[in-house]
Amino acid sequence: MSGVRSKINDKFEFPERIDMAPYHVDYLKDRDQPPNPDLYELVGVLVHSGTAESGHYYSYIKERPANSMIHQSWVEFNDMDVSKFDFGSIPDQCFGGPHESGPYSSRYPKVFSAYMLFYERVDPMNASEESQISTSWGVPAKCPVPTELQSQINSNNSAWLRTYCMFDPAHATFSRQLLEQLRIVTNGICSDDHKTEKEAIWLSLDHLERILSRSKDCPHFSKMLGPLQKVIGSCSTCCNLTLEWVVDHKHALRNLLLRVPTASVRKDFGNIILMALQYLREAEPRWYGFQDSDEVDHPSSNRELQQGATFTSIVAGLEELWTSLWMYHRGWDDYFGLLVGMANLGMHETHKLMQYGFLQYCFEMLVVESCKEPWTRNLHYTNYVRYVEKARKYPMGKLIELLAVLIGRTDLKKDPVRRMQDRRLNMGGMVMTKDEDDLMMFSSGFPRSKRICVFLEKALNTDHNPQATAKIVRHLALAEEELGIVEFIQRTIQSGINVDPACLAEPWLISAIAFLECTPSETGAKRMIDNIATEVDTIGYSGGREHLDFFAQARRITSYRSTISRGFFNRCVLHAAPQWAPALLLFWEEPIRGATLDLLKSLVFNHDTTQMDDEEYADSIEAAGRNLQVACVRKCSNMVQLQKTIDSRLVEQVQEVIDHCKAYYHAEDDRDKAFIAETDSK
User: Fold this and answer.
1) What kind and span of H or E run contains 118?
2) If you ran DSSP here, which 8-state letter would residue 651 be given?
3) Which residue of 361, 444, 610, 658 is most buried, as measured by CB atoms within 10 A?
4) What phi, psi does 539 have (nearest 5°)?
């Protein structure tokens, strides 16, 4: 006894007819009396395919009544599929046992066999049964049924026939040609009532959603898009009819934007919606949502888009999908990409997206994993966290880009409002709500002295859109005087610089550049550059290119702040060169070593300090040269002490730096002089 359930797949044969007379009670009492035959005929077989734990049931049923002169007819019922069945295949399909695939092939048991047999007593037919017998080959037997049941059968058959026609490849061609011929039929002018156009557009969209988007590789989907885009882009009413279909078919919006497994289909559908909105915005501003048609040409208008208009209805449909977003990770970039496109249409659209909560939603999605408990009132966040813990990967690139667009159009100088309804359209920037402000400043679980910005840390950790994250950093840093969060942002960025492997620090370094461009504090900027320079010595075998690019870009930064001089960042990188240069000069990749040497030439070696008018800058270059010489010698000395085997080609650049510094920048400190002399003697 194994205690494990198993299905017996041994061969079991059964007859087409059985005589039950030997099992009658009368015969069993008196076996001397010959029994009268009592025949039963096989009329149905229920088959199970699968294992003892799971499987599928289907059946073979004999058509009855049947004319004895006509060969018996059997039908297979397998879910919605009904087809003719050859009774001669009963042994192969129902007896079980091993597969007999050839004389030399291996035998393995079948997973399908008869589960239940149905026998019917063989009796002479009465007059009513004889009247139901079909007199022609291939025509099923008919019998009277109640009117209500007949109506249901007719309805089901009609629905099945329509579905069958829809899946016919010719239907895709038919739908496409309807759109292509639409302008020909109407002589290039749409009808006044647009009934014909509506039928053609909605039929095509229905076919896109129900058939083409679900077929493998979607070969006909792109062919349908061309004529559809042509119709949408030539008539504002047809354009509005397309958007009405999207609004009326909420399930289609979910299916085509989130559920469809083919990425090109999701992207193309989002582009169709965005294209239609752009056309309608220019052609029919009132339908779009503007109260006056001239507001499109005067974007400074502070009148909000009307509720119930086309744009607002699309936004409402997208907002309804938020609670189910956790189920469709493949469609995140398409969903948020559409929202980014809609936000980029203008301030009016951005305001409407904020009114529907998308700024708060983006913040919530980025901080929810850091909460001790997700918001219990929102089950979708609980499910999202559970899926993340199971290692499901959600693409965050477009979500972060949407957040960057929305934050970029807020006025962080103004006090937050309590409710979203209190937020008014303002071309100078919308105010945040209190909840949004709290989420932006959220730093749960950290001591006050080590507070970091949780949503920003999440955006940087994903490394899905570092450029959009850098935009967020710039906007927050520029508002520092009002928010007081410059150290908050600086700690967040510096917390991710020391990461292993060091190449993963790239998004943090990109955001560090954005922060340096906007920070009002020279002290804070210099501290960040020095901290990053210190970390270079620990990068090991990765991250050389990323860190070198940071210093090359940092020295050329032009600050957004008028209080920071133009050459300030160049001098900071120059001052930190003894910290970051030695490790990069000895990096294992030759292009990194060469690029580091080129950067040092630009910073230090190409300047004739004796001819410079700026004596302070000249002194900085000479001090950097002296310190760089000592730092490079110490780095080489440490490698020798560790008894590391060094390829001669690996030290070519660092040797060139040491020789140049020794010739032009003499060490002033006695201890440094003694150290260099001792090293040279060895």
Assistant:
1) strand 112-121
2) G
3) 658
4) -75, -20
Distance CA 442, CA 365 (A): 12
Q: Per residue in 15-33, pLDDT tens?
A: 999 998 888 888 888 877 8
Sign of the Cα torsion 198, 204, 207, 210 reads: negative
- Terminal Cα-to-Cα distance of the chain (whole angstroms): 79
Report which residue type is found at 197.
Answer: E
**Residue linked to tokens 């119709």:** 231
Distance of CA 291 to the CA centre of its chain: 36
Q: 528 in the Ramachandran plot: left (φ > 0), alpha (ψ -120 to 50) or beta? A: alpha
Query: Do residues 27 and 12 touch, judged by C-beta distance below 8 A?
Result: no
Q: Is 132 strand, coil or helix?
A: coil
What sections of 284-427 are H helices per DSSP?
A: 285-288, 310-320, 332-343, 347-355, 358-367, 379-389, 397-408
Which candidate, 61, 40, 58, places its Cα nearest to that of 50?
A: 58
Q: Could you tell me if 400 and 462 are in contact, meaning their C-beta atoms sit under 8 angstroms apart?
A: yes
User: What does the alpha-carbon distance between residue 595 and residue 597 come to, in Å, rounded to a whole number?
Assistant: 5
Contact status, residue 548 vs residue 592, Cβ threshold 8 Å = yes
What's the mean pLDDT in 362-379? 79
Question: Dihedral, CA atoms, 469, 470, 472, 476, nearest 10 degrees?
Answer: 140
d(CA 492, CA 460): 9
Q: Is 499 exposed, middle or buried (0-12, 13-18, 19+ CB in 10 A)?
A: middle
* Closest CA relative to residue 547, chosen from 594, 590, 514, 596: 596
Coil, helix or strand for 587?
coil
Neighbour tally for 3: CB within 10 Å: 4
Task: Confirm if 121 and 39 have CB atoms less than 8 A apart.
Answer: yes
Q: Name the DSSP letter for residue 417.
A: B
| Closest to 47 measured CA to CA, from 66, 61, 29 | 61
* Sign of the torsion angle spanned by Cα atoms 606, 609, 613, 615: positive
pLDDT in tens, 47-63: 999 998 889 999 999 98
- Give yes or no for residue 656 having a pLDDT over 80: yes
Rounded (to 5) percent helix, strand, coil in the chain: 60, 5, 35
> Of 44, 22, 16, 18, whose CA–CA distance to 35 is shortest?
22
Q: Residue 672: pLDDT above 80?
A: no
Structure token pair of residue 213: 């988007």
Q: How far apart are CA 274 and CA 208, in angstroms?
A: 17
CA distances from 603 to 531, 532, 570 (A): 19, 18, 8
Is the confidence at residue 568, as pLDDT, over 60? yes
CA 630 – CA 624 distance, rounded (Å): 10
Please tell me whether residue 512 adopts helix, strand or coil conformation.
helix
Cα–Cα nearest to 659, from 635, 625, 623 = 625
Q: According to the model, what pLDDT value does residue 682 have?
A: 46
Give 336's pLDDT tier (boundaries 50, 70, 90): very high
pLDDT beyond 50 at 675: no
Q: State the average pLDDT over residues 217-236.
A: 81
Determine how many CB atoms are found less than 10 A away from the CB of residue 262.
Answer: 16
Residues paired with residue 114 on neighbouring β-strands, in sequence order: 47
Q: Give CA–CA dist 624/628, Å, rounded.
A: 6
The pair of structure tokens assigned to 534 is 């210190």
The CA distance from 480 to 472, in Å, is 13
Structure tokens at 660: 């140049």
Residue 616 CA to residue 506 CA, distance in Å, equals 33
Is residue 119 within 8 A of residue 42, CB to CB? The reply is: yes
